[in-house]
Write a structure and sequence with these properties.
mainly alpha; 81% helix
């Protein structure tokens, strides 16, 4: 005896099959997104680079004042030169990420803008500083305050947006040191700048690099 199936029953079967297919598709998409997110980690290279460059410039300048010698060039021009690798690193890391969000895009431009701003600030202070020497205003005594103020901006944005607490605390340290340099002498300013660069960028950059390598190794084991 042939079993007769009402049309309504057939429609119910089709709806269940369709619903199951949609659920499976959503689950598959969710797995792919989570897998892509796991492959996304900030390498911390830019952070380490700026931490090394700024702290090195500050300590070398401190040594020049403390031990009475002078390099044949302004050590702070290294910050201007560092703009080029900053842009290249940002573009390379942005292209190499398997998972991109709107956060990635604006973070790219935040740090590119920071690098350009540092270079321009070095240029402006060198020009304005030469003019200030002709007057009685001690312009160079307040340069560190402006630089530290600028250092805290992209650091604070990155620390809050990417939830990197060491960088967030480093940004706050930059602003605290910026206020402190208003009342301290030039040599202390340089040491505070080096301290801020180490805690705001170098140490967080090392932490991010270790996390990146760990995530990369875990991702490689999952593929095996």
């Amino acid at each position: 005896m042939r079993e007769f199936i009402f049309p309504e029953t057939i429609n119910v079967y089709k709806m269940e099959e369709k619903q199951l297919s949609e659920n499976e598709s959503l689950e598959l998409i969710s797995k792919m997104i989570n897998k892509a997110k796991q492959s996304y980690k900030d390498t911390g290279v830019s952070s380490m680079m700026w931490g090394i460059v700024i702290s090195l410039c500050s300590l070398v300048r401190f040594a020049e004042i403390e031990f009475g010698f002078s390099l044949p060039f302004n050590i702070y021009w290294l910050t201007f030169v560092a703009v080029i690798p900053q842009i290249l690193i940002s573009i390379r890391e942005h292209k190499g990420k398997n998972y991109k969000t709107y956060d990635d895009t604006y973070m790219l431009y935040v740090w590119m803008g920071f690098g350009i701003s540092i270079g321009l600030l070095v240029f402006i202070t060198s020009v304005v500083g030469n003019e200030a020497e002709k007057s009685s205003f001690p312009f160079y005594e307040y340069i560190s305050s402006f630089f530290l103020l600028l250092y805290g901006i992209p650091t604070f944005i990155t620390g809050t947006a990417c939830k990197v607490k060491p960088m967030l605390w480093g940004a706050l340290l930059c602003w605290i040191c910026s206020i402190a340099t208003v009342y301290s002498n030039g040599k202390i300013d340089l040491l505070l700048t080096a301290l801020a660069a180490i805690f705001a960028w170098l140490i967080p950059g090392i932490i991010m690099q270790l996390d990146f390598r760990k995530a990369k190794n875990e991702l490689g084991r999952n593929h095996v």
